[in-house]
Write a structure and sequence with these properties.
heterodimer, A: 13 strands, 20% strand, flat, B: 6-stranded antiparallel β-sheet, 7 helices, 30% strand
């Protein structure tokens, strides 16, 4: 078993930084999705003079350090999303160049993703868990002098499973173990419990922050930009949010207002839930949430999606029983 | 392998001006090569859509209006309604634009075979229906009685009149307008009025529609009592589209992605969707 002592963490990071561009994502507000699916990226550049089209170049290798277990899980899920129904080159060009290093104080039985995970032990030490071949190769190349412990010693040294002590999305974590029930309840709520959506429509500020900070939300819009000479056109893909008013709006012609298929906050906010817990389940067999808690933490209206789901679930169970 | 979002360059071969704000663009591949065919030997299935665009302005979805067997060109009808369509309207023959697709499913033409077909559309909803008509006419003996009901606000708003004269020889065409002009000898009123006068064999009839939501609702309310269930009524849905491949989320309609599961749905599939 390879061990990294906490006091040598900075030396380890220095060494990582010499291998490739290093991003330390500990305490990051925005989720790691931004390194593979940036908030704004130029997908194609078209030169009007030469009529030539160039696409985004593959980046150099980079390392993300300090990813939480939940974010590792989200990246694995996002990999799945970006593969279906057709492979998203812009995402995978970057994803393929990344080395993901997780950092966790929590116990895990099965690694939720990433290439290497540093698992905190009791004595200010991390166990270096190699998850993928890519991670194994990388460590070999890194040639870092880890401390080696004999096998079998690790079990008793592990810190306790912390998730039950944390106040973040604990009950939601439980709900997610039955995504089919969650699917049924959220789908039912639109007509069965409209009061909750009316209430949320009055609270939601349409700011889109919940979707930007979500490690799984992946709505985007495509916009063209011109350079000042007018010769170069850049097609940009930008994060969008299904809670924003323009999201499902189509043009209506001269003198006509157009039409939005999600006409109010209520429809838009419900659509966000619907994607995560209904459509997401139908597409991937699981809800599109890893209970990272960012949406709740950064919502300026203090909407707590865990509370919302619990309220729906309680009402649903009462009616169904 | 080509990037799924990368468009191909095409050239405008011909522009037909239909009215003040509607133009037809016939597009051919820049190198003159034919458009690739699908397994059925078609350039696209009528009802599928393409994303046509202009660098610097973006892309918009259009249901091609051309004959689906004609691999030399793809025709789209563009009504000037927003940024992209206004930019397309400023183009001239010979100008270049971009194309992606075809995307989506199209009308289930194999299911339509051996059946009577009613085609209903209004205003600018004619293009995908037009390509379906072209397909039916090319394979006329495969289909039973075919009726096209097409309504518009004024006679000037009825598009593709020349083509329609050809169609009239092979299928029944009923045109109707809300506001007739003095030289108008067709029907006055909504397409629903025309539908009520149609004699149909409901057990063996399928319906293909492309038009605004209220028209679709009104027709559904008429067809169901006539004995045509929602699963035999096919409608092409309009939504905002950005990616075309079921990822960006703009076009979602309940459980469905209009860009990959549609844009053609039978009413049974989408009737319960809450986001209309």
């Amino acid at each position: 078993m390879k061990i990294l002592e906490e006091k040598r963490l900075n030396i380890f990071l220095d060494k990582l930084g010499k291998q490739a561009q290093l991003f330390d994502v500990r305490e990051s507000i925005l989720p790691p999705k931004r390194y593979f699916f940036p908030s704004r990226e130029i997908t194609f550049t078209f030169d009007k003079k030469s009529k030539s089209l160039s696409s985004q170049k593959a980046p150099k290798d980079f390392i993300l350090f300090g990813i939480s277990l939940k974010d590792l899980e989200a990246i694995t899920y996002l990999d799945e999303i970006m593969q279906k129904p057709a492979r998203d080159d812009f995402y995978f060009n970057k994803r393929d160049k990344s080395i993901l290093i997780g950092l966790t104080g929590k116990e895990f039985n099965v690694a939720p993703g990433g290439d290497i995970i540093l698992r905190k032990l009791k004595n200010d030490e991390y166990e270096v868990v190699v998850v993928t071949k890519k991670g194994e190769k990388f460590l070999k190349r890194l040639d870092f002098p880890f401390t080696c412990l004999p096998a079998g010693k690790e079990e008793k040294d592990r810190v306790e499973y912390k998730i039950s002590k944390s106040k973040t999305m604990v009950e939601l974590h439980g709900l997610l173990s039955d995504p089919e029930l969650l699917h049924d309840a959220v789908k039912w709520s639109w007509q069965g419990y409209p009061e909750i959506w009316d209430k949320l429509a009055g609270e939601c500020l349409n700011c889109g922050i919940c979707t930007y900070v979500c490690p799984l939300c992946h709505c985007f819009s495509v916009e063209d930009e011109m350079d000042l000479s007018g010769d170069e056109c850049r097609r940009c893909r930008k994060w969008d949010a299904c809670t924003l008013p323009e999201f499902a709006k189509v043009a209506g012609g001269i003198g006509r207002p157009g039409h939005s298929f999600h006409k109010g906050v209520k429809e838009r906010y419900y659509n966000w839930f619907y994607h995560k817990f209904v459509r997401g389940y139908l597409e991937f067999g699981k809800s599109q949430c890893v209970t990272c808690g960012r949406c709740k933490k950064y919502c300026p209206a203090r909407i707590d999606i865990e509370e919302v789901l619990l309220e729906i679930m309680n009402r649903f169970k009462k009616i169904k029983n | 392998m080509q990037n799924i979002y990368e468009p191909i360059p095409v050239k405008i071969q011909k522009i037909e001006i239909y009215s003040g704000d509607v133009k037809l663009f016939r597009m051919a591949k820049l190198d003159g090569s034919p458009f690739p065919l699908n397994q059925n030997g078609l350039v696209f299935v009528p009802g599928q859509f393409v994303l046509a665009g202009l660098w610097g302005y973006g892309e918009s979805p259009f249901g091609p209006a051309s004959h689906p067997n004609d691999s030399s060109c793809i025709e789209v009808v563009v009504r000037k309604v927003g940024q992209v369509t206004s930019a397309l309207h400023s183009l001239e023959e010979g100008d270049e634009l971009t194309l992606r697709g075809p995307y989506g499913n199209g009308y289930p033409i194999d299911f339509f075979r051996e059946k009577d077909v009613i085609l209903i559309t209004g205003g600018c909803g004619i293009p995908p229906i037009a390509s379906l008509v072209e397909y039916i006419i090319s394979n006329r003996s495969d289909f039973g009685e075919v009726n096209l009901l097409y309504g518009a606000t004024t006679p000037e708003d009825l598009l593709m009149k020349e083509r329609m004269n050809e169609w009239k020889r092979r299928i029944n065409v009923t045109l109707t307008v809300d506001k007739p002009a003095c030289n108008w000898d067709g029907n006055t009123g909504f397409v629903t009025d025309c539908l009520e006068h149609l004699k149909i064999n409901s057990a063996n009839t399928v319906v293909a529609m492309c038009g605004p939501g209220p028209m679709v609702d009104a027709i559904e309310n008429l067809l169901n009592p006539m004995g045509i269930p929602d699963r035999r009524i096919f409608v092409s849905m309009e939504r905002k589209m950005q990616c075309g491949v079921g990822r960006c989320q703009h076009c979602v309609c309940g459980d469905k992605y209009v860009c990959v599961d549609g844009p053609v749905f039978n009413l049974d599939e989408i009737d319960k969707a809450w986001d209309k």
